[in-house]
Amino acid sequence: MALPSEQLQLNPRFNQLKELLRSANYSKKIKKGSFLFQEGMPANELYLICSGKLQMIKTCPDGKEMCFRICSVGEIVGELTLFTNDPKYLLTAKVIEDGEVAVIEKDYLEEQLLLNPSLTFEYMQWLSNHTRRTQTKFRDLILHGKKGALYSTLIRMSNSYGIPLKDGSILIDLPLKNQDLANFCGTTRESVNRMLNALKNKGILSIKRGKITIHDLDYLKSEIQCENCPVEICRIE
């Protein structure tokens, strides 16, 4: 069943892989507050988001949730371990906005990867990009602690959802609660609240109606010795 092309607005990257998913046999409705899949479940499917949004999260031993990325239209989700027996999903996909996903089964994807070298190359690139994003996020957390995690999250948010303003500031066009940021940073809401207040007092950022405007992005970058990674890597998606 081919999905309507007007729904997708596909990113030009990974066209073959997304086209394969778009022509999947069926689609699935997703509802806010539900889970597309959960960590530890059998990894039998891969998904392309046609509409809606998901959070990819990891539950820590103490019960806290750590959010790795937000996925929206045109993004591929489903942490598969291909060509292995009994693969499991490595993360949980939590639906934060109603939508629909295209579904492709693991066995069929493996078959297509064996037959199509260029498709296999795209899939390897996709996995490599996600690995690099995860590594840089952990690097900031390990080297700079909670502050580094928050600052790098704000930088990634600005790359993914930032709207440049006339005065040079960047509006992150995504409503965020302090708990949402805490989940991205692997820390508490109280810690994020203190750090945000410190940044507001310095004039680095401001918050209005749940949306953050960054007035001095260079300050955040200098505080974590930003390596100016390519934007495709330094994103929250």
From TrEMBL:
Pfam families according to UniProt: cNMP_binding, HTH_Crp_2
UniProt keyword list: Activator, DNA-binding, Transcription, Transcription regulation
Listed transmembrane segments: none
HTH crp-type domain location: 144-218
Superkingdom to which the source organism belongs: Bacteria
Domain Cyclic nucleotide-binding residue range list: 16-113
An annotated Gene Ontology molecular function: DNA binding
GO CC annotation, single: cytosol
Protein name as catalogued: CRP/FNR family transcriptional regulator
Biological source species: Paranoxybacillus vitaminiphilus
